[in-house]
Each structure stands twice: as structure tokens, then as C-alpha cells.
Design goal:
elongated; alpha+beta; six-stranded mixed beta sheet; Beta-lactamase
Length: about 775
């Protein structure tokens, strides 16, 4: 009895202990659970809102294209092109699932099986981590919301975020986000960029073996990159293929074929990983990029996924670069000229079709002489003086003395302009003075029309550098760029209309919306139509009979002007056809002298070769296609007066209404006066070709003519500043040319300049 009671007492005590222990355990469990819930709730409050992914805009690569749609450059911080899941190859989708998360469609963000498998592997490897437990959703959460540190706190947050993402988004949406977000090395974010960087293909076209290579990269892009270590990349790809085979994503035949391709060696694109990737025509492309920098936020350019369609004609650009390289190689030994630049602008649109900034572009020296080199234009700047004179009422047959003249300078000294050959031609028409580039006449005209007025017209036509109102301005002492000169000269074939030159035609954002459009460029009338076509006629004469004969094209009209600076430091030719305008500069970066060579010797031949290629296949057009309201008159080629029926050779000249000359040719008898020429779009270049008479009567006024007698004395005139004759030479450097400090460019906005009034014809007493 006693023994039995003792046993019961022991049993009760044991049961009481177990009950108390259970209650304590239950209390601890509840406490732990409560604590866990509190901690979990606190974590949840601190976690970012995953619903924001609905509005996620990843960084995308900006792409720049040529006029015919070829990719010429890319800009990016993260080289990425967003690609919908359905446009990604099934091979790629299967490969990434096989190696990163084979149970992706079965778990809810955290994979218990994966966690258990990783734990067992950790024990077997004696603490060495050989496989992770992160699912694709957890990786996405880490990449988008968390830091890459390896703490428990970060892992816990990662798991919570993954579960929230799974509750918010469908599986395919998560996979699409992952495949477009993950980094694949070599600057490639997302599978589209990876496909292009490694294999120069699209994500939709990736093969099994290519997909295996790319899918193996996210675990360690630097370790498994085929561009860094092809053997490691091959081993990793075989691991991916093995997983795909085990999961029945591929069959034995596909597996063997892929492994054989790996062993034979794959062809990789090996694209560079810089943020600034210029693929073609770097002189033009870098000009466009720097222009975009000045107008757009850097973040938009590098992350906005813009599509920028430029104006460059790749064939013309490449041909122009080849011509410049070849000819300058010859000039170096023949003339001591070691560099050149050229710009070609399409007149009717302002599109820059070609831009050559030098004989060779490299990353260490990206200096672009076509728009960054400020050089003296020499006599090519005289065109602005003559343009101002024609606007003031002068005509090509206005006579101006080419005779000695002196101007009083400061300190009692005088300055006398001289012609390049040291001679004087006496009283000559403006046409002849421009034809032979007479310096004295240009300076006389500057004093007559006013330097400030010349500067105004130069600004209106497209010059953007600071111009000083001194006498040497007429001889090209200011500094300009080839792009400015080409832009300004294009006003002439455009009939007085200025179109801002542009290297960009149209820009789209990542959604296809138009950001900037130059399909229909803005036009601004800066010269009268009569002045524009009078200058065309005078500059055409300068090419055909003057200093620019080396620029002639065999099948179509060319107009333009040569330019050579003091001591032969710069050689220019700026010219145009009805379709294109081009400016060519030749010289040395360090301002050293060329060997007694002129713009007509070095720049004009480059112009001719470039323009010959530019006009292949284009119809032949003539100058003089007027918009209306102007009068064309047949003039005698010998007397420069109104032609009559007996004049053997004639040419057409344009006048404003009321400015038509009435004096007829006195050299060829009193034949019947020819009526006014019909304003035909084609001016006759043949002396024997007769013009169709106009049936529309025109009222005329007597033409004001300047005296033909030479002056009897040398007058003294006082300019406001001493002429600048030339710039001193400056040594270059290994990193690129060094230039004197240029004048600050004027910020010319539309409407800043006063309107150009039409002045009265200058009286004969205005000339010395």
C-alpha cells in the first residue's frame, strides 16, 4: 500500500512539472510570437512600398542614329533597353530560371525547399557557402530596394519584401522586371543590352548556348564573363545547360549541340563598356552630343532612352574624311599645311550633312576644327562687306577706285591697305573687285557703308563670334569657325533666308513621343531676295573667272570666295551650289605659316572633291530661282551697261524695283534696246544664248553711278580703332592645339539686332 501511494505521488509530481513546463513553454512561445509580430510589424513599417514598382522607370540607353537610320553612338549610365517578356527568347527565360530559381512559379517569394537545400549544403561543405537560397523575387527586392551587405537584417528585409512583391505582382511581371533590371557585366543591364554587348543580337534571337552564357553571369559577372575568362564562362554555361537538361527544358540533343558549340568556341561581340560609346563618324557625333549637353539635362540624355535621329549622310561624311586625310598628307610636304576642316550644309533644310574636324580623331584629342577652331577668314569675310553694300543700293557694276588710300591712325601714324600683288587696277566695278579679291576696294566699301552695319549683317547671316568695328575687319581680321561661315553663306542660295544649321532632325523619348523636331526648319529673312541673288551672281563670277577656279564643278554652277590670312597662316574656301554650302579651312594648329600658299590652292580643291561626291545623282540646278518681286536685266559683258541688240555677250543681273539702270551700252552702236529679261530660274551661261523677253512693262528710275575718274589726292580718314592685321603664332601641345584667348561669343537671340532698313543709294560724293 505504501509503495503504491508513493508511485502515485511521483506521477502527480511529474505531471505537475510537465504541465508547468508546458505552460512556461507556451508562455515563452506566445511571448516570442508577440515579440516577433511586433518586430515584423516594425520592419514592415520601415519597408518601402513595393506598389511603387508599377511606376518604375529604369535607366535606359539613349541611341543616336544617322540620317539613314544606322546606329552611330550610345549614351548611358546603365546600358539598358527595356524589353517585354514576350520579346525575350524562351531559351533565355528557361536558362535564367534553371540556374537562379527553378521553383519560381511554385513559391511565394521565399522558397522553403531552397532554404533547406542551402542549409544542408552549408553543413556538408563545413561552413562554405556554395549555393544561395535567394529566389528571383528576393534578388529583385535586393537590387531595387536594399543595399548589398550580407547582414541578417538585410536578409530578413529581403524576404519580407519578396513576399510583398509576390502579393502585388503576377509571376510574369516579376520575371520581366528581373530580366530587365539585373546586371550582366560589361556595362549591360537587362537581357537586351547583354545580348547586344556579348553577341551583337537581340534578346528575342538568343540561342540555347548564348542564353546559357548570359544566364550564368548574374551570380558573378566579372568571374564568368566570356570577355574576361572564356574558360570560366564555358564551365558556368555547361552548369546552366545541365540544370536545363535535368528540368526537361532542353533534350539530350540540344544539350550536346550546345556543349559542342562551347568547346568549339563562340564568337563574342566584345563591345566596350564606356558611358560614351561612339561607333561611327566621331567628329560629327561628338558635335551632336556636345550640342545636346547644352540643351538637355544630363540625366535625361544618359538615362532617358532617347532616340536621336541626326542629319549626317554617312557616305558623304566618310568620303569627306577620306578626302581631307589624303589631300592634307600631300599638303604637308608641298605646303607645310598639316590640318584641315570642312562642313557641308544642305541649303533648304540647314541640315549638317558632313563635318570633318581634322585629319584624325582620337580619344585623347577630340578637338573639332569645324566648329571649335576660331581662325581668321581672310578675304572670305569680304563677302559681308559686299553684301552690306548691295543692300545699301550698290550694284555689281558700281565703280570703286582700286587706288592708294591712307587712313589716319592713333599717334599720328597712317595705315594704307594694300593688295596681295602690290598693284592697283584703278577704277573697277565691284564685280571685278570681288572677282580678284582687291583689298583696297573692300576697305573703301567698309568705310562707305559703315563697319557697324557690316557687323550687323554678319550677325544676321550666322556669325556668332565677337566682331570689332575696325578697318581690318574688311580683310578678315576677326575670328570665325567653318560652321559659322558655311551657315552664313547658305543665306545666298536660299534667297536671303537664314536657316539655323542643325545636326539633329528629330528626337523621340522612350515612349515614342516627339521631343524635338526639325523636319520643317524655321526660316528667317535676313537679306532681300535681290541682294541674295546679286551676291550669287558676283560670287559665281569670282569662282569662274577669279581666285576660286579650283572649286569649279564640271556640271553645275558654283559660287564662293577664297580667303588667305596674313603670312599664309590660314587658307579658306567658302562656297555653294543651289543645293549645298560648304566651308573648308586649311592650316596648322600652332598657327605656323604655310609656304606661300593661298586658299584657292589648298581649300578650293578640297571643296571641289567633297562637293563632287555630295552632288552625285542630284539634278543640275541654277541660281536665280527667285521668290518674286525682283527684276532681272540683261547687261553687256564689256560695257557693264544695259545690253542692246548688238551686244555680242550678255549676262543677267538682278535689281530691286526702281533700281533698274537706264543707261545702255555705248560700245556696240545704237542697236534696238533689249527688253527686260524674263525672271527665269535659269541664268544663261552661254554668250550666244538669247533670253526670252518679258511681256510685263516695268517702271525704271535712273541708276546712280559712281565716277570713273581716279581721285586726285589721297584722303585721310579716321577709324575708331587700329586695324588688327593678324594673330600671333601659338605653339601647340601633345593634347591638342592651344589657341589665344578668343573674344567672348555674343549671345545673339532672335530680335536682339535692329531691323535692317533699306537705305537710300549712296551719293557719288561718298567716295574719296
Amino acid at each position: 500500500m505504501k509503495g503504491k501511494g508513493t508511485s502515485r505521488q511521483i506521477l502527480r509530481t511529474l505531471l505537475r512539472f510537465l504541465l508547468i513546463s508546458f505552460m512556461v513553454f507556451l508562455g515563452l512561445l506566445v511571448a516570442a510570437a508577440t515579440t516577433g509580430l511586433v518586430i515584423l510589424n516594425n520592419y514592415a513599417k520601415e519597408l518601402p512600398d513595393v506598389s511603387r514598382l508599377r511606376y518604375y522607370e529604369p535607366s535606359e540607353t539613349t541611341r543616336i542614329f544617322s540620317a539613314d537610320g544606322q546606329l552611330i553612338a550610345t549614351l548611358f549610365k546603365e546600358n539598358r533597353t527595356w524589353t517585354p517578356l514576350e520579346e525575350i527568347s524562351p531559351n533565355m527565360r528557361n536558362a535564367i530560371l534553371a540556374i537562379e530559381d527553378s521553383r519560381f512559379y511554385d513559391h511565394q517569394g521565399v522558397d522553403p525547399v531552397g532554404v533547406l537545400r542551402a542549409g544542408v549544403d552549408l553543413i556538408r561543405s563545413h561552413g562554405q557557402i556554395r549555393q544561395g537560397a535567394s529566389t528571383i523575387t528576393m534578388q529583385l527586392a535586393r537590387n531595387l530596394f536594399l543595399s548589398p551587405d550580407q547582414s541578417f537584417d538585410r536578409k530578413f528585409r529581403e524576404a519580407l519584401l519578396a513576399m510583398q512583391i509576390e502579393k502585388t505582382f503576377a509571376k510574369d511581371e516579376i520575371l520581366e522586371l528581373y530580366l530587365n533590371q539585373v546586371y550582366f557585366g560589361a556595362g549591360a543591364y537587362g537581357v537586351q543590352a547583354a545580348a547586344n554587348v556579348y553577341f551583337n543580337t537581340k534578346a528575342s534571337d538568343l540561342s540555347v548556348v548564348q542564353s546559357a552564357i548570359i544566364a550564368g553571369l548574374p551570380a558573378s559577372p566579372s568571374t564568368y564573363s566570356p570577355l574576361v575568362d572564356e574558360r570560366s564562362a564555358r564551365i558556368r554555361a555547361i552548369e546552366v545547360l545541365s540544370r536545363m537538361l535535368v528540368l526537361d527544358m532542353i533534350d539530350q540533343k540540344q544539350y550536346r549541340e550546345a556543349v559542342d558549340q562551347l568547346r568549339s568556341g563562340l564568337k563574342y561581340a566584345n563591345k566596350n563598356r564606356e558611358e560614351f560609346q561612339v561607333l561611327k563618324v566621331p567628329y560629327f557625333t561628338t558635335y551632336v552630343i556636345k550640342d545636346l549637353y547644352s540643351r538637355y539635362d544630363e540625366d535625361l540624355l544618359y538615362r532617358g532612352g532617347l532616340r536621336i535621329y541626326t542629319t549626317v549622310d554617312l557616305k558623304l561624311q566618310e568620303q569627306a574624311e577620306s578626302i581631307v586625310r589624303r589631300e592634307v598628307a600631300n599638303y604637308a610636304s608641298a605646303y607645310n599645311a598639316t590640318n584641315a576642316a570642312a562642313v557641308v550644309i544642305e541649303n533648304k533644310t540647314g541640315y549638317i550633312r558632313a563635318m570633318v574636324g581634322g585629319v584624325g580623331w582620337n580619344k585623347k584629342n577630340q578637338f573639332n576644327r569645324a566648329w571649335q577652331a576660331r581662325r581668321q577668314p581672310g578675304s572670305s569675310f569680304k563677302v559681308f562687306v559686299y553684301t552690306t553694300a548691295v543692300e545699301a543700293g550698290y550694284t555689281p557694276d558700281t565703280v570703286v577706285p582700286d587706288s592708294p588710300v591712307a587712313y589716319q591712325m592713333g599717334g599720328g601714324e597712317t595705315w594704307s591697305p594694300r593688295n596681295s600683288d602690290g598693284s592697283f587696277m584703278g577704277n573697277i566695278p565691284m564685280r571685278t573687285a570681288l572677282q580678284y579679291s582687291r583689298n583696297v576696294v573692300a576697305v573703301r566699301l567698309l568705310t562707305l557703308v559703315g563697319a557697324e552695319r557690316v557687323i550687323e549683317y554678319a550677325y544676321r547671316m550666322g556669325i556668332r563670334e565677337r566682331l570689332e568695328p575696325n578697318l581690318s575687319l574688311a580683310l578678315g581680321s576677326a575670328v570665325v569657325t567653318p560652321l559659322e561661315m558655311a551657315s552664313a553663306f547658305s543665306v545666298f542660295p536660299n534667297g536671303g533666308l537664314r536657316i539655323q544649321p542643325t545636326g539633329v532632325k528629330i528626337i523621340y523619348d522612350a515612349e515614342g513621343n516627339v521631343v524635338e523636331d526639325h523636319t520643317f526648319p524655321k526660316q528667317e529673312e535676313v537679306l532681300s531676295e535681290a541682294t541674295a541673288f546679286t551676291m550669287c551672281e558676283m560670287l559665281q563670277n569670282a569662282v569662274e573667272r577669279g581666285t576660286g577656279t579650283a572649286a569649279l564643278l564640271s556640271d553645275r554652277p558654283v559660287a564662293g570666295k577664297t580667303g588667305t590670312t596674313d603670312d599664309h597662316r590660314d587658307g579658306w574656301f567658302v562656297g555653294f551650289t543651289p543645293q549645298y554650302t560648304s566651308a573648308v579651312w586649311v592650316g596648322n594648329d600652332n598657327f605656323s605659316r604655310m609656304w606661300h600658299v593661298f586658299g584657292g590652292d589648298v581649300a578650293a580643291p578640297l571643296f571641289r572633291q567633297i562637293m563632287q561626291f555630295a552632288h552625285k545623282g542630284l539634278p543640275v540646278m541654277q541660281f536665280g530661282q527667285l521668290r518674286g518681286g525682283q527684276v532681272s536685266v540683261l547687261m553687256c559683258s564689256e560695257s557693264k551697261k544695259r545690253a542692246n541688240a548688238k551686244c555680242p555677250t550678255t549676262y543677267k543681273e538682278y535689281f530691286k524695283p526702281g533700281m533698274v539702270p537706264t543707261a545702255f551700252c555705248p560700245l556696240h552702236g545704237r542697236g534696238q534696246a533689249l527688253p527686260l529679261a524674263n525672271p527665269s530660274p535659269k541664268a544663261s551661261k552661254s554668250p550666244d544664248k538669247k533670253e526670252e523677253p518679258s511681256k510685263v512693262p516695268v517702271e525704271v528710275e535712273p541708276q546712280t553711278e559712281l565716277p570713273v575718274e581716279a581721285p586726285t589726292a589721297v584722303p585721310l580718314e579716321v577709324p575708331t580703332e587700329e586695324p588688327i592685321l593678324d594673330l600671333p603664332p601659338v605653339d601647340g601641345s601633345e593634347t591638342g592645339p592651344t589657341y589665344p584667348e578668343p573674344p567672348a561669343p555674343l549671345d545673339i537671340q532672335d530680335g536682339d539686332l535692329p531691323p535692317a532698313a533699306t537705305p537710300e543709294p549712296l551719293p557719288t560724293s561718298a567716295l574719296p
